[in-house]
Amino acid sequence: MTRLLDNRNALGLLFMLPAGVLLLVFLTYPLGLGTWLGFTDTKIGRGGTWIGLENYEYLWGDSVTRLALFNTVFYTVVASVLKFFLGLWLAILLNERIPFKTFFRAAILLPYIVPTALSAIAFWWIFDAQFSVISWVLTRFGLIHSYIDFLGDPWNARLSVVAANVWRGVPFVAICLLAGLQTISPSLYEAAAIDGATGWQRFRHVTLPLLTPIIAVVMTFSVLFTFTDFQLIYVITRGGPLNATHLMATLSFQRAIPGGALGEGAAIAIAMVPFLLAAILFSYFGLQRRAWQQGGSDQ
Amino acid sequence: MSEEKTADSSGMDYLQTLPRRAAVVYLPLGVFVFVLLFPFYWMAMTTFKPDAELLSREGNPFWVINPTLAHIEKLLFKTSYPEWMWNTVVVSVVATFTSLAAAVLAAYAIERLRFRGAKQTGLAIFLAYLVPPSILFIPLATIVFKLGLFDTRWALILTYPTFLIPFCTWLLMGYFRTIPYELEECALIDGATRWQVLVKIVLPLAVPGLISAGIFAFTLSWNEFIYALTFVSSSEVKTVPVGVVTELVEGDVYHWGSLMAGALLGSLPVAVLYSFFVEYYVSGMTGAVKE
Question: pTM to 2 decimals?
């Protein structure tokens, strides 16, 4: 027994056991089961049979699914681009010497830490068709004459949920990039300034190259979680109006849980995997580049 | 963590004049802070506004004239809100501690025992961290149902570790790497077992890392939505985010006051916890990304 515990392989296995069992039962197995469900016609309360690619063929011809795919790509691209630029800007501002810096940094992260479902309710109220505070302010300034129907019109609704997502995601991007900015030595900027570099040149040729590795990782995470976002949409619009804001995740939930078509829902969820794999590969090469830039081996 | 760095990075600020700094730094920063914090202000205002003020377009909506506690009272005494709060606390605390314990063992095994295949296991943990709940919830729902856990707190306590363990393990692996190996070697030579090394040497040194991982895991479980929405259907076992979204919305008449009160009270515990441990939280968040 004691000899067994001295063996690092046996002991390693023992230590890995709790995490391994939990992850195999509740992560790896469901991942496989989900893939299998996607090829069956399982309904709630009734086991399914293998129907091959029928779900995927049906979904490919389904206009709502196509719309959801478009919405998801639109949502992810627009929100990620905005999150990146606003987050980078905010990180640079926070990297300046300002009073109450710690307080600012703490306050700015608040949108990221409170439950998204709950802050989404606040946005729902802010976007209310009759009592929206945004409309109130705009009418007071005489910029609009009737209240904006934020969530009733397809494009307004899409942009509104993108705004809510950006609001929630900017702090994450900003704080992570700030951590990256803080590792850049000020002497590099001084050297560049002495060589006559302008502010933009210092940013373009000093900040950006040194920040690229961390940008790659942060944005991969951001894209990953925006693409698979569920709660913001579920709370604010439930996919409406006319499915204009349905994402793959919300559509998959709607078809599978209230709709009962587990197989079809699983197929929609699995259809997101290729996009996620692309994001992960992107992250992997981002990490490699970082190791290489810091003088680590390329492995 | 950043004290010396901030003093260091003052760099060339003196080259900028004050009016220019005001326009380039303080003004945009002010706008950012305003936009990021406004929804919370709005939540708080709505919570204390009587219905008459909420539903009037006259007057200034940014202030409360007759503050009322009616919405909070309704929430606490006429809905199951206290129960949801209790469920959220139980589920978050149990899931966090379970995951943390499993993650400590796993991270130590991967980083320090270096058993055969440790490197691949580490990579697998990282990949597990990237699997989003929204592609797992359908198969997980069938598993939860088969195990007879549907509509119980156990359904959530057992499924939350799927995203908590990979995160905590990844974070702790990074942390364990910073603890000098020599300390462990000394203990091993003195005759300590691996278990003693872990409990008496590594864990005490890893306390900041444990706090980071714990705080982050706790907020992640507190905020979890899709599993709680799918695996639980009775009011008595709902968590706060799901309870507020599914039960406080009655028909077409939205009770904005109590909805906002529910959102505000549900956000407070994590916000308070966070305010005490900001540094740990930030290092957990950035650490997981930087590794």
Answer: 0.89
